[in-house]
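Q: Structure for this?
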Amino acid sequence: GAGVSQSPSNKVTEKGKDVELRCDPISGHTALYWYRQSLGQGLEFLIYFQGNSAPDKSGLPSDRFSAERTGGSVSTLTIQRTQQEDSAVYLCASSPHQGRLRIGQYFGPGTRLTVT
Amino acid sequence: RKEVEQDPGPFNVPEGATVAFNCTYSNSASQSFFWYRQDCRKEPKLLMSVYSSGNEDGRFTAQLNRASQYISLLIRDSKLSDSATYLCVVTIGAGGTSYGKLTFGQGTILTVHP
């Protein structure tokens, strides 16, 4: 079946511009997560959605970052006034159920963001 | 101290070798444990969950020691295609709604050569 998809796959933007990154989770997966991976760094949690609500936004690095999810499906991560340190691969993952921790999460291919 | 620590390697082994990776985690409230693999410039892919009783999937064996807060992965009969970064991952519940936020180790690089 279809996996997690993300768009765009690559995004180059100028410092100060806003960007939107999109994630389409696996159909039926209620939990959705955003992570980012900077060059040479590990994966860093950003935000978690259960349905359309975000019980945990603790990983968002600043108030320039926001995310929403609509219809319990597609999610958009928005970065306002991008900075060079925002350059990273932004990964989305989905999981069938919040309570089934052993299931693990399935990742999309990521969006590689470069801020010049 | 990092929440999840791994030996970054790299491990360079010949085809057919057995190789073991170790990982320690700092939060005793950690509830679920996984190994993911990540190929260069690709997304992480779930390799296997790790259970307290230990579990095996083909050439891969995972072990968990909750008392020592230690996780291991053993790969037998290494193949060239096993070359990747192996990520040790734990989840820590949040109050009454454990939601599975993944906390990743930095990864261990494995290169299998002919």
